[in-house]
Design goal:
This protein is an alpha/beta fold and about 350 residues long. The chain has 2 domains: about 130 residues, 3-Layer(aba) Sandwich (Rossmann fold), CATH 3.40.50; about 190 residues, 3-Layer(aba) Sandwich (Rossmann fold). It is about 45% helix and about 20% strand. The strands form 3 sheets. It has a 6-stranded parallel β-sheet with strand order 2-1-3-4-5-13, sandwiched between helices. Helix 2 packs across helix 10.
Length: about 350
């Protein structure tokens, strides 16, 4: 019996060594441009952040001669091993998803100057030659959502909260609050915002992007305080909030990153609108650039998604929740933001932190 167990252990160890060595073996020749994506926590099917970025690679697979692959990170210590995998596999482009991957992405890019990288939600200063930063002015779109929420609320109280207090999250919340405040100024109203205060730099954050239980808990607290519209900026956490709003039966949710009527259709009846962060378009555009014959490096450039270039936007507002006049005002406000006539609050806020 002891001999049988020992032989089994030996076989398991040998098999593990073979798997570990696979990353170091030369890969089969292929004409396809290969793109590897390292997710942040939350999973590839989070129906929000990671999923939207992955959709950009799927679009490239459909329209370009591209092969895509992803590795999921369940925690921050997964970032470096996942990046190492794509370096060892000699991928043509490595896309990392999220602000929290910034340090690892920079370290790997500087150590591997012959590889090209792109990162969603970070721009380096100074730039790194072989990284393209993909960032988004979501404050512009969230401002519109805040204005719509202020017009639609029946209780005069709306709310927002975040997953982790990092700029790609708080930028939504700042824009949302400023949109509500702008509605108040223009209409002599007094709609309150729970969960975020730009002036005090305080807000509600659950500390993660994956606990739907936290999403339900925070939403229930806001609902008990009279909020009837909630915008969670927290990936899958927000799906827990949507469940709480659906159960309440007298409130609305605002989606983020993607159109939740498409990505989370089970909550269609309670989705007021969604703040769109078109990461899929930015990722596709980056792949298309890098796959061009003769391409060498991004030169450290940064892509900025705005209302003007459709890098951000809002989905249709639920029918019957705002008037035709407010719809028209949203169009006017959108253009005024593009023209620089309306301040969405982010530049002053982030400037005050530096």
């Amino acid at each position: 019996m002891r001999k049988h167990i020992s032989m089994t252990l030996v076989m398991v160890l040998l098999f593990s060594l073979v798997l570990s060595a696979c990353d170091l073996l030369p890969q089969p020749e292929t004409d396809a441009f290969r793109v590897g994506m390292v997710t942040d926590v939350g999973g590839i099917d989070d129906r929000s952040f990671n999923a939207t970025a992955w959709r950009g690679i799927e679009m490239a697979e459909e329209e370009l001669n591209v092969e895509g692959d992803f590795l999921e990170s369940t925690a921050q210590p997964d970032y470096a091993p996942n990046l190492t995998h794509y370096i060892n596999q000699d991928y043509d482009l490595i896309v990392t998803v999220g602000f929290l991957l910034a340090d690892d992405t920079r370290d790997f890019a500087e150590a591997n100057p012959d590889f090209n990288f792109a990162i969603v939600d970070f721009a380096y200063d100074p730039p790194v030659e072989n990284i393209r930063g993909l960032v988004f002015a979501t404050d512009e779109a969230a401002f519109l959502a805040g204005y719509a929420a202020a017009a639609a609320t029946q209780t005069g109280i709306v709310a927002t909260f975040g997953g982790i207090n990092i700029p790609p999250v708080s930028i939504f919340m700042v824009g949302f609050e400023h949109g509500v405040n702008y509605y108040n100024e223009q209409n002599g109203a007094n709609v309150q915002v729970l969960g975020w205060d730009t002036a005090a730099n305080t807000g509600v954050f659950v500390g993660n992007f994956d606990s739907t239980d936290d999403g339900r808990r925070v939403a229930d607290e806001f609902l008990s305080e009279g909020a009837d519209i909630i915008m969670p900026v927290a990936g899958p956490v927000g799906l827990g909030s949507a469940e709480a709003v659906q159960q309440a039966g007298n409130a609305w949710i605002i989606g983020v990153d993607t159109d939740w009527t498409v990505s989370a259709p089970e909550y269609d009846a309670i989705i007021l609108t969604s703040v769109l962060k078109n990461m899929d378009i930015a990722v596709f555009d980056t792949i298309q650039m890098a796959a061009e014959p003769g391409f060498t490096t991004f030169g450290g450039e940064t892509y900025l998604g705005t209302l003007e270039n459709d890098g951000v936007g809002i989905a249709d507002v639920a029918p019957g929740t705002i008037t035709a006049d407010v719809e028209a005002e949203l169009d006017q406000i959108r253009q005024a933001i593009i023209d620089g006539e309306i301040d969405t609050g982010w530049a002053a806020y982030i400037g005050g932190l530096n």
